[in-house]
# Entry
Amino acid sequence: MSAVLFAVATTSTVSAAQSSPRRDRALEAQLLAHITVLASDEYQGREPGTEGEAKTLRYIGRQMFEAGLVSGTNDPGHEWFAPVTLVSREAAVSVAQFTRRGRVVALPRDQVLMLTSGKRSLIQGAPLLFVGKGQGAVPPRAELAGRVALLLDGDDQSEARQDALLAGGASAVLTILDGGRSLGSVAARRQRSGYALGSEALGGDLEGFITRAGAERLLAASGQSIARLEAEASRSDFAPRVLDLAASLEATTRETTIRTHNVIGMIRGRRPDAGAVLFVSHWDHFGTCAEPPAEHLICNGAIDNASGVGALIEIARRLAKGPPPDRSIYFLATTGEELGLLGAQAFAESPPLPLAQIVAAFNIDSVAIAPAGTPLGIVGKGMTRLDPQIAAVARAQRRKILDSDAPNAYVRRQDGWALLQHDVPTVLVSSAYGDPARMERFFDTDYHRPGDRVKPGIELGGAAEDVSFLVALGRWFADVRRVPGGVK
# Structure
């Protein structure tokens, strides 16, 4: 099947390329070859922790080695493949008990839901601190510590306020569902299996939700009511106050461990002390994502992101063939991007070099979208000091950059965001984001669906131009004469 797809798509791509002198037909064929292998059914949708991952890692590692790279893990015990432990967490036990002056206030079990981001979270006999709708400044840590913040669910910002209270030191947050949300809707969304980096720590944030009826019953035990608390919270002089109630709360999760890997290769620079340049592209996808009677069950991820990995390999091959750069250039193929940018986060938390040494990082994601000649879009525009240097390279390469920050709408949806959170100057520069409407059509059709396969006529004109431009960026930022002391 893969061979047939390759033959058909190659014919279509070459035919289209002959109509435009801008197209690098040889590079397009090389990209297509990588995409066809990585997005084949044999690779089972490249799900972390599966045989599809093992095949993917072998392919990427072999391509990096044959391109002339050396291992970039800087760990003799794990050459090329840096281990990443993920855990899948599903809500399990939820316990909530309330007391007033030592006497239990009984509530039906189906009126309260407790959730934790860790394996197990437990507090006992903690006073309830009413914080209204959580608007304004977060109370001082000394006021929150050891207490359960009782929050009114007034609008769509209540989740952000809940997070702020937890970050501010609250032992737990209990939200009264007095708005549009129900306990059932919260349970349906929050009790789905989620993923995180593995940790031995037991604890995690403790979040609770109580129905309006349950809250009325609880408050009545101390002579309070929701209406009274709402009126109190609406006053201009409102201040949080401790209620005559205490809570013992517990939540646990069921965990499944997934052992997966990032792949890291490197071109060693002549002056590695001058810093490094980083290229990033995620290799993972969703594996089997449909059920019979659907004709095709695998999410092959041809565009997202076999195309990005193919581009990463070809950028590495071209940079390795050139003169040795001043700065070292790292090539990172991440796992767990589709699960929450987890491979990039793992890299940032345990990097093979100090993150402060990374002069510039470039993410590569879903590049097989736009035709040749499409302007370059920058995801992360205005968020780093890289923009003037990128503009200089664009002028030298006679490339146009989209005069808009519209691509920034995607900034949190790609690995660059995880690196930006660790102060690594990272952008995604691609023609795929130079036409946001075209990208949105992909999101509305094949994105994260079995339809994202290698098809006749897959568009690689823009992807090939992206490779050439990113090679130029790599050479520019690795040159200490052009970028003497970095740009951070």
